[in-house]
Structures are given as structure tokens and as C-alpha cells.
Amino acid sequence: MARDGSSDGEDKKLGWQQAWDQARVMALDARTGKERWQGKRGLSRISHGVPCIWEQGGKAQVVTEAGDVVQGFDFKTGERLWSHQFIGEGKVPSAVLGDGLVFTSGGWGGKETIKAFKLGGQGDLKEANLVWEQKEGMPKVPSMIYLKPHLFAITDGSVVTCMKADTGEIVWQEHVGGNFAASPVAAAGRIYFVGDNGETTVIEAGSEFKVLAKNLLGEKVQASPAVSQGQVFIRTEKNLYCIGAKSDQWKFDETDGGQARDSSSGNHHGAVHGAVRVGASLAAQSRASRTHWWKFLTLLHSMT
């Protein structure tokens, strides 16, 4: 868990536009909420990405980025082990790991870039472990996604870029239309991009650009979707949707501000509004929209 308290003071630029040395990474006990350790970032600026876990030689590290840095901390003690320099403040996308590399994006005002660093090392490495840099197709909000041997990114303005993960070379770059804040997810060789307008674009995760489906949900979406047990979960401005092939294990009853229930065990799984029964028609959607979504369900069915 990262916290940057720079906004507590009078100088609102400190920690945002101006680097400061008080930011830290904290680990909390999941059962009790008690603090386990704190790790000092050193000079850095604010960011919004979530950390990743990387294992080397049987030891786990917490890989996390902030404005101007990408860093590795000892999983058990919080000791900062290494730090790479990557100039950029207010970074939103989370770092992505793959094949011994950490992929990160940042920069504004003509300095937008994607960089790949070799994981590991010791101390303040600056750019000593920089493997490659790509200045096209940088996402400012959505996180990237790594599917060996490719790295995929989508910009706020709908430009999807497929890169070779080991070199950063662009394989293809295409517009899918719309605006994007949600990060893409992948399943069964497909990548799902959910736009701000609620339209999901499904593409083949490969070296050729191929759109498999476009499905309009008709509600504003900025939260990243999740995939589990053959289902796609999408949080819109007003509802939470579970979409996928009918399952004997997971059966969600249509609710209106009630509880989502696992019918196989009777256990509640969190409050939702406007949930849909798996395999049933989508609530409050037009017949045409349902038709598009059933095409989507057909694609998802092959995942189970």
C-alpha cells in the first residue's frame, strides 16, 4: 500500500510537481490491519499504480513505482533493494512484470514514453538496467498488459499498440474508437478493452490486429473489468454486471441493491446493484443490446 502525504502541507506542489523524500510504502497484516513495515521511497513524486510481487532466488520482492522511480522492496522487511529512474509525475498506470522485465509508462508534455527495465540489482541504478524505450502509444491512465511474447497498451484516446516485449518494437498499432480509463484484461487468448461509454472491444491477443466483437453495455464505465471462472465482471456507473456462460457453480440472482449470492452454498458475496443472472438477459437493456451481448457470451463460453 503506497501513501503520499505531501498534500497535507501548505505547498500543494510538493510531492506532485516537486519531488520530496517523505513518501513511503507500507505493508499491512491482512487479518488485523496492523502495520508490518514501512519502506522509504527517497526522492519521488505521486503516483496511483498498484504494486506487483516478483520472486528471485526464492525470495519475494514488492515492485512498485512512483513519480520518477520504479523500485523493489524486500517483501518481509520493507528494505528498498533497488531503484530505477523514470521521470514523470502523477503516474496512473500500474507497472507490469514479464520475463524478468518491469514495464512502466509515464511522462507529459511531449515526454511520454514506455520503458522496460531489467528487474533486480542493488542500490540507485538510475537507467543502468534500461532495456528499451518506446515513445509511441503511451497510456496515461489504463495499465498495460503482458501476454508473452507481446506487450499491449491502449491510450486514453483508443490507440491500441502491440509491442514485442523483449525489444519494444511495434508490431501493430490501431484505433478501436472511444475513450478509455479502464485497464484491459485477458482470457482465453483474447483481450477485452472496456471504453468509457460502456462498449467492450474484444481482440485477438496476437501479432495481427483482429477485432472479434464489439458489445455496447450502454452505461458509463471507468473501472477495470475482472475475469474469474469464465465470467467477466464489469462495474458501470450504476450497476455491477456478471457476464458469461451459464454455470452450475455460480448463479447470480437479479437484484436491486441487494446481495449477490452463490446459490451453490448460500453464501453472500458482496452488495451489488442491478446484478444479472448468469446466462439470462441483461436487465434494463434493449433487445438489440442483448443480441450483441449474447455474441459476447458465445465468445466467453469457450473459456469454460
How would you briefly describe this protein structure?
By secondary structure, this protein is mainly beta.
The best one-word shape is: globular
What's the helical proportion of residues?
Answer: under 10%
Helix count equals 1
> Poorly predicted ranges (pLDDT <50, ≥5 residues)?
250-304
User: What is the second-level CATH architecture of the largest domain?
Assistant: Beta Barrel
Structural class: mainly beta
Side by side, the strands of the main sheet go: 4-5-6-7-11
- CATH topology (fold) name of the largest domain: Lipocalin
CATH class of the largest domain: Mainly Beta
Q: Rg from C-alpha positions?
A: 21 Å
Biggest sheet statistics: 5 strands, mixed
Q: What number of structural domains do the residues give? A: 2
Mean pLDDT: 81
Q: In what range is the share of β-strand residues?
A: 35-45%
List SSEs in N-to-C order. EEEEEEEEEEEEEEEEEEEEEEEEEH
Query: What is the strand tally?
Result: 25
**Alpha carbon gap, first and last residue:** 34 Å
Please describe what this structure looks like.
The structure is a single chain. With 304 residues, this protein is mainly beta. 5% of the residues lie in helices and 41% in strands. The strands form seven sheets. It has a five-stranded mixed beta sheet, with no helix packed on it.
Name the features.
304 residues, mainly beta, Lipocalin, Thrombin, subunit H, five-stranded mixed beta sheet, four-stranded antiparallel beta sheet, 1 helix, globular
